[in-house]
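Reagents: none. Just compute today. Glycosyltransferase RgtA/B/C/D-like domain-containing protein.
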Amino acid sequence: MAGSRKGEAGRPRVGRLWSRRPLWTSRVLGHPAAPLAFVAALYGLAQLAFVGNGLRWGWDEMVYLSQVSPSLPDAAFTAPRARGITWLVAPVAFFSASPSVVRLWMTLLSSTGLFVAYLPWLRVLAHRGHPAVVALAALLFAGLWVVQYYGGAVMPNLYVAYASVAATAFFLLAVRDPRAAGDPDVAASSRTAQGPLLGLAAGVAVAALLRPGDAVWLVLALGLAWPAVRAWRRAAVLPALVGGLALGLAPWIVEAYTRYGGLLHRVHEASRIQGTLRPTWGVLHEFTALNGPLLCRPCDIPVKYPYLVLWWLVLPFAAAGGVLVARRIGVAGPYGLACAAGAGLAAQYLFLVGYGAPRFLLPAYALLALPVALLLVRLAWSRRSAAVVVGTAVAGQLVTQHLILDRRVERSHAYRAGERAVAETLRRSGLSAPCVVGGPAATLPMAYEAGCGFRTFRRKALTRPDERMAAYVTRVPEAAVAGWVSRSLRTADGRMWYLWLPAVRAGENAETARPKPRGFAGSVPRVGFEPTLYGF
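Predicted 3D structure written out:
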């Protein structure tokens, strides 16, 4: 009897144990944020699988890293740049500037940021199927090749997109009327509403810390929306917008007076470096750069893979269609604001900047993905055939974006391998620190790989011994100049390089010259660069 009772007593216990597991998993998988978390995790894995963390540093990345990494030469920090991204990478870059380590950290930040940015929209939206809409918006955004490419990069644009998405959501939460939401405890709801105001200020401040110009356009878009809708005219919203912008701009403004001769001078210099902001058809440059190159300046090249640009042409119409669908179901406000904020963030690059880069429009893509996702979800729910069409279209978009990503990553590896090959040739030719590398085709990463500083200069007849530690790099032959000898190099990607070195240094044997190890070693001149060629 005892044994049977023990067995009987054991069965319910086992049954309870197993009954809890489906209950626990159902709570997790059934949570509204579960689809979004799955997309964020998938985004991080896609970066590791398709981009990897071994891509060597690009020019802009090295500038940002050099501000916090003791192992990199001090690169000139020009007027348009802001230090927000340097603070994001600082916890790891201070200890290691290894691309594999730092890129892994940035991949973790970017995948987490995707989840955090879209998470408040689960509170903003309350219509049927809103978790699917938010998750699909995150998937459409993260599926773009440029978003995956820059996920592990030390670049600010992606995080401006995250801050803009979150700030727009917190704006909508901050202007929400607790009585309209059906909350009987209005006083308690008013106290709780301070959280969205803080979130709004924080989102704007983060955007301003990363890219001040983008933050100004974000605040302008949200600030114009505030009086446009009567229900949104909550008095505390405007101070939160202005306060967040002021807080985020404060370091940039202080640095303007300590390093750039004043705020107006820094603004003028930033505009000059960016080609002087003026009315222009920047939309043509952004269209040309849609599938690469990473920076189109000057942008006088044909569109790459023109058969893969259809989505960009359809995007504004799909976003407008999503807003119309939202109006029909009574939620036009949130989706309309996302569309307006996205358009505002894109306006400066489409009509004021005279060159293009795919990363410039990331904040706009992140916001416009929300009304597009609503349109696709509602179409998929309308009938089974429509669901098949929508699924096929989304899958096709992801596949084609992956094909572009694969090509971009391949070209980036080849280009940066070419820079290393040029640097190795310079080192074998006897160039050693302290030294400088310059010329029309020279780059900051090339100089770093050679163990030198970077500086723009022109070749001239060498008359002093201290001028002998220099190298001049071009992509086309140039006329001979007294004291310089030329060497040519064809890298694995088929490009020709012409390297000019001082005659005495070029004749030395690499073994007797004892070049420094790759990377920064010893004392080198302060690094500078030519912004009109490389942009931001």
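The longest helix spans residues 384-428.
Action item: order primers for follow-up constructs.
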